[in-house]
Amino acid sequence: MPRVLITNDDGYRAPGIRAVAPAIAELGYDVLVVAPMIDESGVGSARAGIVNRPIRTASDVENGVTFVGIEGTPAIAVTMAQAGAFGAPPDLVLSGINRGMNIGVSIFHSGTVAAALTAAETGTSAVAVSLDSEDPRHWATAATIAGEALGWIAGEPGGTVLTINVPDRPLDQLAGVRHASLAVNRRTRLVATTAPSGEPMIALERTPQAATVPGTDEALLAEGFVTVTPIVGIREVRDDAAATALAKRLMS
Hints:
Residues 4-186 form the Survival protein SurE-like phosphatase/nucleotidase domain. By secondary structure, this protein is an alpha/beta fold.
């Protein structure tokens, strides 16, 4: 069976990764768990300072699986594993299970999703799995979905990436599985405010609930569907219009 790196952005002691790693090991995969020591949510693909710097680690064993924590981000965990810092590089990467959904275009900032995209940077296929609750109960449902998704991407071209959101409900109460587009409108927004000390700060503000767009991850997840969205990282747009326009402006 393939070697699977399991990582997250909630920390290597988080319940999501503790639930999914033994479940994936039970499927026969060679499991390697490497994740941040602390919560690194929202760090995106950050991996500053990784070169020529010792990385502090910690580890413990639970349910027969060794969980390694690193002083770094999810993207650093993936990069180190792919470089062979923890033995043979992984064939696949599973990022999650994240506490809370990862929907809409703002997944760009998600450490969970960024870990999967970092894996794809060198041609490794990956799945990012998130559970739609801030206080999840049905980790086993998401773990089952994660195992099935790994089985599928194992046969797909290298660099395939899926971001999956799972309703927090029993497996037999899921409405189904649907492809989803990324929502644009979100339930919250970031606003500038001032701290009591007088220093500027950013606060999270809940926005008026706008109608969801049918077919988006936001809408389908609310209907009880597991949402599956294939994504790609940074790539060029094959359009030379900007360069042509700039050349004309410089020569005019």
